Q: What sequence folds into this?
């Protein structure tokens, strides 16, 4: 099959390139630890060549999303305001001079107080995760992307209306690696009961995370939680806080949010699925290779596909 | 003047010893970086001698509070259940064999769901911070001890009824030293406006800390906050979350909490005073050298004073 598009998910720590045919099927996939944080300014052309296996083809259109379009990336692709759908995003690709590469803009939205929230790369995954018929679906749906900075996005008729970021994954890593709780949680183990207890403790609006976190210390201290369960309990506390707050965010926007689409790494999505179920929220898993699908759909909409 | 009591505030990282006369006045004060975390088991007798300047007197009673009574300390002084006042604490001192040293117990309390909270050392500071006439005061008052693990304690008629811990200081240090926000906040500066904005953003019950923290990234990114203000904004977000949650904790206990007593390091108390004022909470500063005063009062109550 002929390669019609090279689609690159180019993030902070790694880059992944997909060769796609004219129907968007993945022909080949390559990845490299050449994330934006690891490439010096000026070295992006050679990083791209390395990622693609030695040479950058001059006859194939390329598209990239993620931190590659940030101020620390190759060329800055300014944020687009929400709401934004395929048309708005596809019309705002930023070309990289001297190449056939175009960069997908990130998105920005503002809450009622004018405080901004941003995403780069997730907009493409969200558009890729939608089922083919969903892009035109009128009813709003909610897409959740678990991760270092988890995103909850409200999607309506193929447009991303608004979104909210939660620093769940980064806080978990900080607490595990550097806090007094992490020293307790050093004994690894899987404890589903501890995880569910953590979720249940921090879901209610009356919960207070900076207080509840201390119970990951006092419970094992008083025999109320096995040391092996501290890591899962901590994870539960953080997920419960995220889900509780996100649900209230949806309610303020008069969205029911009783079912969501999960997009991300399988084990992490499964963890979210269990936590969401405790909150009475159903979840389904979004289409696989969401970034590649999203990049292909945006490229097709933008008219850069030549085959 | 003759030394009637040696009183030691012996914490995780440092120890401070006070020589007190028969009326509780401080005659001398010594400190050393010989906190519990820095002393090997079995080395506590020599650490005490070093702290006291070479020799441990055999003719003077000694009393200590803090982590020295934890499982990692010299001798474990089991937690006392709340409510606990002078009498309950003074009757539960744990003697250290072979010395005239006694250790003040920490306190434990449980919330409506049975989740425990603990303190060690702060109970002594709280009892020391009360004005002489306050120990018998019937109306409840609230004592706040800012720090790595801030404590809010509800005190009634000289008894500590209940308390709640907030990991505010530890979270601030983690975020400044190890997070993506800390890298932004590397440029130090004092920005009172940014601090107050952070407090105001996270005081309301509708606030969600793991989401709001991300605004310490998006605001400077979009020109809505100077980089010099990121540290103070972050501090404000964490203090606002603590104060908002603590106020709701007091309300659930039907305590008005419109004024509190602050006990701790002066600059940190001033920061709390400003944040509390934004929440409409008045604050006064507790008596200085609260730990020494508390240790002296507990020793007197316990009958170990011989002069």
A:
């Amino acid at each position: 099959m002929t390669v019609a598009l090279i689609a690159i998910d180019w993030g902070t720590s790694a880059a992944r390139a997909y060769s796609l045919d004219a129907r968007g099927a993945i022909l080949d996939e390559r990845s490299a630890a050449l994330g934006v944080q690891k490439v010096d300014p000026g070295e992006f052309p050679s990083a791209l060549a390395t990622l693609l296996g030695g040479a950058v083809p001059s006859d194939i259109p390329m598209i990239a999303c993620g931190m590659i379009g940030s101020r620390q990336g190759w060329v800055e692709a300014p944020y687009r305001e929400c709401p934004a759908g395929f048309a708005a995003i596809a019309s705002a690709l930023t070309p990289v001079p001297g190449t056939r590469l175009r960069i997908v803009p990130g998105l920005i939205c503002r809450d009622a107080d004018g405080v901004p929230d941003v995403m780069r790369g997730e907009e493409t995954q969200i558009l890729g995760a939608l089922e083919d018929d969903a892009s035109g679906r009128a009813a709003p749906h909610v897409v959740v992307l678990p991760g270092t900075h988890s995103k909850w996005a409200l999607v309506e008729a193929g447009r991303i209306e608004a979104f909210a970021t939660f620093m769940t994954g980064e806080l978990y890593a900080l607490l595990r690696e550097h806090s007094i709780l992490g020293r307790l949680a050093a004994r690894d183990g899987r404890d589903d009961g501890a995880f569910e207890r953590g979720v249940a403790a921090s879901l209610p609006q009356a919960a207070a995370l900076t207080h509840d976190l201390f119970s990951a210390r006092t419970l094992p201290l008083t025999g109320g939680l096995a040391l092996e369960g501290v890591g899962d309990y901590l994870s539960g506390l953080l997920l419960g806080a995220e889900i509780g707050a996100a649900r209230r965010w949806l309610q303020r926007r008069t969205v029911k949010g009783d079912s969501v689409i999960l997009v991300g790494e399988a084990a992490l999505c499964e963890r979210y699925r269990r936590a969401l179920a405790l909150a009475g929220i159903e979840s389904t898993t979004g289409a696989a290779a969401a970034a590649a699908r999203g990049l292909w759909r945006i490229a097709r909409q933008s008219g850069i596909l030549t085959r």
Summary: Chain A touches chain B at residues 108, 113, 115-118, 149, 164-168, 170-171, 174-175, 177-180, 201, 205-206, 208-211, 213-215, 218-219, 221-222, 224, 238, 241-242, 244-245, 248-249, 252 (CB under 8 Å). The mean pLDDT of chain A is 93.
